[in-house]
Amino acid sequence: MKQRVLSLLSSTTEIIYALGCGDRLVGRSHECDYPEEVSELPICTIPKFNVDGTSREVDDEVKSLVQSALSIYYINEKLLKELKPDIIFTQSQCEVCAVSVSDVEKALNNITGLSSRVISVEPNSVEDIFNDILTIAEILNVRKKGKELVELIKAKIDSTEKIVYQKSSPSVATIEWIDPLMAAGNWVPQLIRVAGGKNLFGEAGKHSPWMKYNDLVEQDPEIIIVMPCGYDIKKTLIEIKTLESKKGWGSLKAVRNRNVYITDGNQFFNRPGPRIIESLEILLEIIHSDFSESKHIDSGWIKLN
Per CATH, which fold does 163-303 belong to? Predict the structure, then answer.
C-alpha cells in the first residue's frame, strides 16, 4: 500500500517531489507552494498572525504569541483526521518559521485513532540539508534517488567553487529580516562563501542573529543582499523603504555603488532543500556577475535602483 504523506514544511515538500514521491502527498502547509502541482493538495495549517503586516508588525505579533507560550499556527485537526497520514514531516528548527513538532504532537493527541509517524527535520547547515534528503529518501524507500539528489547538489557546489577560485571576495551583508534587523545564518553563510563572497554577519550552522543598524554602517559592506524570510521581491521592495529612510543609508559603500540586491527569500534562501542550487546560482550572479549568466534576474533577484 502506498504511503500517505503529509508535509507541513515547504522544504520537505520540495524534497519529496524531487525524489519522485509527490504522488504520496495527501496534504500540505499553507506555505507549501512549489512545485505548482502541490497547490491541488488540501491545506492543513493557518498562521495566527497577519502575514500581510509590515516587518515590524509581524515581528511584534509573533513575539507576543511566543511569549504567551502559544503556537503561532493552527492545525486543522478535522482535516488531519480525514487525511489519515501515515507519515507527517515537520521541523524543530524554528517555532516561528513553520509548524513545530510539538504543534503536530499536540494535534495528534487530540485525534482518536490516528497514530501517524512524525518526522522532524532541523537543517542548520548545508550538510544538514544533505542528511535530511537522505533521511527522507530512506523513509520513502527511495534511497538511491536520495543519494543522486545529494550528489547533484554537491556537484553544483564544486563547480561554483571552481568558477570563483582565486577571484576577489567582496564583503557581503545578507539581511533576513528588515525591521528589526536580522542577518542570515544557518546555511546561507556557506552559500556566500561558495559563491565567492566574504560573509560579514551570521555564522554557518547557527541561527540567524539579530543585528543593529550601526553594525551595518560600521562594516560598510561592498554588497548588500536582502532576503527576508517569507517575503517575495514585491513585498521586500515595500519593506526596504524602512532601511532606505535610516540615517547614513545613502553613504554605505554598497548603496553608493548600486550593489544592493533584493531576492525572493521565500522561494529560495528560506527553503533548505533542492533549490539551494538555484540560491547558489543567484548568489553567483550577484557577487560575480562577470562569471555567470543572469538567468534568475527579475524572477529570483533584482538590483535596487
Answer: Rossmann fold (3.40.50)
CB 257 within 8 A of CB 289: no
pTM metric for this prediction: 0.93
For 303, phi then psi, to 5°, come to -90, 135
Say if strands 301-303 and 260-263 run parallel, antiparallel, or are unpaired: antiparallel
Question: Which class is domain 5-122?
Answer: alpha beta
Q: What is the pLDDT of residues 55-80, one digit of tens each?
A: 888 888 877 876 765 578 889 999 99
Residue 97, pLDDT score: 66
Q: Same fold for the domain at 5-122 and the one at 163-303?
A: yes
Average pLDDT over the chain, rounded to whole? 92
What tens digit of pLDDT does each residue of 208-231 get? 999 999 999 999 999 999 999 989
What's the CA gap between 206 and 208, in Å, rounded? Answer: 7
